[in-house]
Amino acid sequence: MKNSRSALVERKNDLYQTPPVAVLALLKVHPMPESRIWEPACGPGAIARTLRGEGFEVYATDLVDYKSDDQNEGGWDFLMESKAPPRTEIILTNPPYKIASQFAEKALELCPHVCLLLRLAFLESNRRTELLESGHLHRVYVFRNRLPMMHRDGWDGKKSGSTMALAWFCWNRTYKAATVVQRISWSQP
What we know:
This protein is of the alpha/beta class.
């Protein structure tokens, strides 16, 4: 049986742009701080563009410089940062899944509020017990309907629907209670 997963060399920077409906669904249910939002894995800027369209101030950075109008700066290695940009209290991103745990841990060091779009399977790991059970994971917003397929950058193959279950994982450093799991939905505009 052939492995349907793509090799890392084909995935390049593991860039899978987030559909706007995923961000809009989160905004309907999760209150955002009134400060600037930092999007540290912005790629060409899909999340930043959606947030700005909803009136939020966003600082969008990425390890790769995509030369996009929606990206403030490229060449930022988020995992090496020691502080958040000024006036930033929330990190909201769709991180590279292969380093999602490191992204979550670093984000919580840098900002009091963190929202990450992750595979629902992120809940399954023993290695992430502290991260998931510290009491700071406030809400997990599980999509009741699968998001439109997020094809990797440069994909020329067949476009299809997603088979991956995704959820927004939202941490709050001041929250200290059981995680609330809430089902949410999206719809095409």
